[in-house]
Amino acid sequence: MSTGFDPLAATCPAPLTEDERVLLGHGSGGRLMAELLADLTPRLGAPATEDAALVTTGAPEIVVSTDGFVVTPRFFPGGDIGSLAVHGTVNDLAMRGAVPVALTLAYIVEEGLPLEELRRVTASVAAAARACDVPVVTGDTKVVGRGAADGLYVTTTGVGVRLPGAHVSAAGGRPGDAVLLSGPIGLHGVTILSTREGLGFETGIASDSRPLHRLAAAMITAGSCGVHALRDPTRGGLSAALNELAAASGVGVELDEPAVPVPPEVAAACDLLGLDPLHVANEGCLVAFVDPARAGAVLSAMRARPEGAQATRIGTLVAGHPGRVIMRTLVGSTRVVDLLVGEQLPRIC
Amino acid sequence: MSTGFDPLAATCPAPLTEDERVLLGHGSGGRLMAELLADLTPRLGAPATEDAALVTTGAPEIVVSTDGFVVTPRFFPGGDIGSLAVHGTVNDLAMRGAVPVALTLAYIVEEGLPLEELRRVTASVAAAARACDVPVVTGDTKVVGRGAADGLYVTTTGVGVRLPGAHVSAAGGRPGDAVLLSGPIGLHGVTILSTREGLGFETGIASDSRPLHRLAAAMITAGSCGVHALRDPTRGGLSAALNELAAASGVGVELDEPAVPVPPEVAAACDLLGLDPLHVANEGCLVAFVDPARAGAVLSAMRARPEGAQATRIGTLVAGHPGRVIMRTLVGSTRVVDLLVGEQLPRIC
Q1: Which residues of A touch B70 (CB under 8 A)?
Q2: Cα Rg, chain A, nearest whole Å
Q3: Whole-number Å distance between alpha carbons of A39 and A35
Q4: C-alpha closest to that of B138 among A134, A310, A156
Q5: Which of A18, A36, A105, A155 is the best substitution to test chain B (most B C-beta atoms within 10 A)?
Q6: What is the pTM of this model?
Q7: SUPFAM superfamilies recorded for this chain (chains A, B) (predicted)?
Q8: What is the distance between the alpha carbons of residues A6 and A16, in angstroms, rounded to a whole number?
Q9: pLDDT tier for residue A167 given thresholds of 50, 70 and 90
Q10: What is each CA distance from A116 to A276, B19, B22, in whole angstroms?
């Protein structure tokens, strides 16, 4: 999630006071983060509803997105900070219907980092970028003293060109739209947490980190103007992504709990750790609001690609309770799926 | 300076060994940094001669640049980390003959930073961007635990559109070109160092941090194809900028020492601290290689703008000693102006 999005602007968060300090929870993708962004983004005069911005330079339409990566550990099952940075940025572009055309790479390095590690990350950035068919065109390296960073931070920025016919936006959802999810949730967050804390869950699972631009393009081709909104549920998980889109679109979301794919290993880890899988970060799936008349065609197109092989419909948009996400549980009751207040899993991406 | 540039690729630096670690000097803009970049950039397959990259998306030509800012202190006479980030990125675009059309902003924040400070920096980013006529279109905020960063790091990326008729490139210099400098050198570096260490020099001076895109545009309008190369001498100072351009252009540079404008406060501070003003960072001046037939017109255009009021000719390009910068001193002798090996002033930008 980027500072671009401010789900609480409409609901008037309590103003942050003068003497408050930044908390880990301010980086969570949850309610504290939303409050921080509601405080900061008006100072920039920036539109605050997307992770990637459209830049008007004439045709073609240019889309830009930026993301910092501070994940710890830097190497984990399924990826590393380098591949994660490339995928995260490519995916933010893809969620605006854009094909990536260039990436930039900025390192902040702590003095004393083994050069071999910097080489490994750089090789991983290069390999991931090649696999996405996007060049790394420029970069920057800053070195800070020991103790002034934790090894390595990576900031990537992507420049993309919008696909003709792509009209996706966070505000695009309409009542009646199908809510589609491209694959199982919770894998990235549980993998990072387990690897970092030595919990052992990571032996059975790996991060889902991967690029989604080809999947998004296939969906837009199959669904045309019927693909109304796309979002990759990263920090804050599926819950944050759906709450953000619901708020921006002014619609309610009704989820069908049994339809939400949670891998058994993720469910087991979340049970043990007291986490809600809906709040756990993902780096390789997307959620979409799609016109019901095109939902079948879009779902077929998703399933035809490896990264969408397990795509499924998880719910429907409704006119009632705009901005709220409601889950119909297995036993037929309903519950509100809300943003977390603070930090569940710091430094997950 | 960004990782885009690798002045030593042609001169075969000693390969870095397996067990080496990143040193502060690897971020210096000097020879150690050049060696690190020579090691890393081939892994990215990135062209390695500019701070900003041209992206081919059709017309108009898009230019992209990224830079991380880790300056300490974050607030200093003449600016702060926010305005510095905006100016630095706008200037990297300007050095490719591009007008900025969009900025992105990524924060890495240490837990515990006073929110008021984050607000001040954000307001400063916004004010600097407005003054440059460029919007901040998207951003990202990551929070890391106490001790995992030093307060706040800022990474900005700029997207620009190249001016019609701009043919500037690092490799554009030709023997006979005039070497023009837009203003006095050393102000930024001495201000930061003096403020950080409490040396007291900063009472008389301030950082020269400011945008140079309007100056660059005026030069290109006045000089047309005669403006061959532009560079802002940031990390590593005028020495690094000239060495980089000389290497990329395959020409020698002859500087005239009395013509290089060093403010008395900078000279005094450098004398006392054992620094060479040619190695001290700047954030508000540029150096240009210009066709001698257009140099007069370009110099007039520079002097007509406040940021170029003190523009002057400091030397000439020669066919001899390609890649080397030679200074004719006051007493008529010559000396080689080389890259520093390691770190002179860490965290200067």
Answers
A1: 108, 142, 144, 148
A2: 19
A3: 6
A4: A156
A5: A155
A6: 0.90
A7: PurM C-terminal domain-like (SSF56042), PurM N-terminal domain-like (SSF55326)
A8: 15
A9: confident
A10: 37, 7, 9
**Tokens found for residue B148:** 């995992």
pLDDT band at A58 (very low <50, low <70, confident <90, very high): low
pLDDT tens for A173-182 read: 999 999 999 9
Cis status of the peptide bond prior to A73, with omega within 30 of 0: yes
Of B16, B59, B137, the CB nearest to A46: B137
Enumerate the residues of chain B whose CB falls inside 8 A of the CB of residue A102: 53, 55, 62, 64
The rounded radius of gyration (Å) of the Cα atoms in chain B is 19
Which ipTM value was assigned to this complex?
0.89
**How many Å from the N-terminal Cα to the C-terminal Cα in chain A?**
10
Strands B252-256, B325-328: pairing kind: parallel
Region at A265 (left for phi over 0; alpha for psi -120 to 50; beta for the rest): alpha
Please tell me the distance from the alpha carbon of residue A106 to that of residue A242, in angstroms, as a whole number.
30
Mutation target to probe the A interface, by most A beta carbons within 10 A, among B55, B137, B234 is: B137
Contacts of A128 in chain B (CB under 8 A): none
In 3D space, the residue among B348, B341, B349 whose CA is nearest the CA of residue B23 turns out to be: B341
Per DSSP, helices labelled H in B170-289 are: 187-197, 213-223, 237-249, 264-273
User: What is the distance between the terminal CA atoms of chain B, rounded to a whole angstrom?
Assistant: 10
**Shortest CA gap B170–chain A (Å):** 14
Question: Is residue A166 over pLDDT 90?
Answer: no
Q: What's the CA gap between A94 and A52, in Å, rounded?
A: 9
The distance between the two most distant Cα atoms of chain B, rounded to a whole number of Å, is: 57
Report the residue of chain B nearest A89, measured CA to CA: B140
Q: Flag if B115 and A47 touch (Cβ within 8 Å).
A: no
Residue A258 has pLDDT above 60, yes or no: yes
Cis peptide leading into residue A135 (ω within 30°): no
Q: Which amino acid is at A248?
A: A
The answer on pLDDT for A75 being more than 50 is yes
